[in-house]
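Design job #97: recover the sequence.
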């Protein structure tokens, strides 16, 4: 019984971790609506430089100023340096989103629970006498 609890716990964790997918996409900087709410992993500047962000990622940010709207991508580099780039200097924006497959997770947990119940039932039957 002790091992079945450990198995169930590992399968449960695996179900939530294993049923996630990571999706990468690339957008032109002018297509703000496509990346404004996503985690930005990398940008390519118009001069050809490629800038990578840390695990948290960069974010699109805009604010009003006296001269109009200021649109930027802000974040930190992998070496923890602060990065700020005007959208006008950015050519391409790359994003990564993580999506959870709810149906896959549910089915995996249901299958795991069925296996555990079957194992417990078999263990209970093997412990009883059939006289």
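Job complete. Output follows.
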């Amino acid at each position: 019984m002790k091992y079945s609890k450990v198995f169930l716990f590992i399968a449960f964790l695996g179900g939530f971790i294993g049923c996630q997918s990571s999706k990468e996409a690339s957008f032109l900087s002018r297509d703000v609506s496509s990346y404004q709410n996503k985690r930005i992993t990398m940008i390519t500047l118009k001069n050809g430089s490629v800038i990578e962000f840390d695990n948290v990622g960069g974010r699109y940010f805009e604010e009003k100023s006296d001269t109009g709207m200021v649109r930027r991508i802000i974040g930190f580099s992998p070496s923890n340096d602060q990065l700020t780039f005007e959208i006008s200097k950015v050519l391409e924006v790359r994003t990564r989103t993580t999506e959870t497959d709810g149906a896959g997770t549910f089915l995996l947990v249901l299958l795991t629970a069925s296996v555990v119940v079957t194992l417990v039932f078999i263990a209970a039957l093997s412990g009883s006498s059939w006289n």
